[in-house]
Amino acid sequence: MARIGYVKPPIVIAHRTCPPYAPENSLEGVRVAIEQGADGIEIDLRSSLDLRPYLMHDNTMARTTGFPLPIEATPSFIVRQTRLRVGSDESPPSLAQFLDAVPSGTLLAIDLKTPWAAFALISEVKRRRIQDGTLVWCSSARVAQFVRWRMPGVEVAYYKDYEDGPNNLAFIARARDLGVHAVSLDWRGIDFGIVEAAHLAGLKVYSWHKDLAITKDKLESGLDGLITDHPARSRSQIEAF
């Protein structure tokens, strides 16, 4: 695979639409992410019982809406009646509502939490012709391959959200063999050697720093994208280095 261009300093991607400032995976959070200057906005995508795509992270809707069932077991007319609980009258947004709310030029980073959501995502991205600005992240190797095959113009990343340092090189090799374009690794595993190994394999590197410190050595590793709950604060820290 040919080596690709990399962005330095890293682009700033708002994690789950900035949950410290707005309900996670919400349209209100989209507005906050834009106000805070994020280059991209990350969401989690699942499907309802009738295969309508909605923004939702967890296996069930309990934490964010109070409704106890998985969204995959809930028809869309009921999903629309639930409300995000943290100070909002907003129901879980559909994929179309999210895409309508994001300004042109903002990167879309979509974490596929269930393979069934891939079908609606592919259809909507193609219909809107937004392949160039869409990043799709998959923890499933098979889903990553499927999305890459069905949407050749979209950047696909293979990710893991846990630290398993000795196996990061093997994970990078696996991503290269899958033919994807990027990996997302645990912040604790980010260093120059790991990022260089990914770049030499033709892969970009993203990482969510969670609540861990943003340090000079992490930024100087060549990291391509920083995923953060605090886009404005993270941008200031990046610029300070």
Any overview of this molecule?
This protein is α/β, with parallel strands linked by helices and 241 residues long. The chain is 33% helix and 18% strand. The protein contains 10 helices and 9 strands. Strand 2 (40-47) and strand 3 form a beta hairpin. An 8-stranded parallel beta barrel has the order 1-2-4-5-6-7-8-9, surrounded by 5 helices. It has helices at residues 27-35, 62-65, 76-79, 95-101, 117-128, 141-150, 168-178, 192-200, 216-219, 231-240; strands at residues 11-14, 40-47, 53-55, 107-112, 134-138, 155-159, 182-184, 204-208, 225-228.
Q: What's the quick description here?
A:
This protein has 241 residues and is of the alpha/beta class. The chain has helices at 27-35, 62-65, 76-79, 95-101, 117-128, 141-150, 168-178, 192-200, 216-219, 231-240, and strands at 11-14, 40-47, 53-55, 107-112, 134-138, 155-159, 182-184, 204-208, 225-228. An eight-stranded parallel beta barrel has the order 1-2-4-5-6-7-8-9, surrounded by five helices.
Give the helix/strand layout:
Elements: E1 11-14, H1 27-35, E2 40-47, E3 53-55, H2 62-65, H3 76-79, H4 95-101, E4 107-112, H5 117-128, E5 134-138, H6 141-150, E6 155-159, H7 168-178, E7 182-184, H8 192-200, E8 204-208, H9 216-219, E9 225-228, H10 231-240
Parallel strand pairs: 1-2, 1-9, 2-4, 4-5, 5-6, 6-7, 7-8, 8-9
Antiparallel strand pairs: 2-3
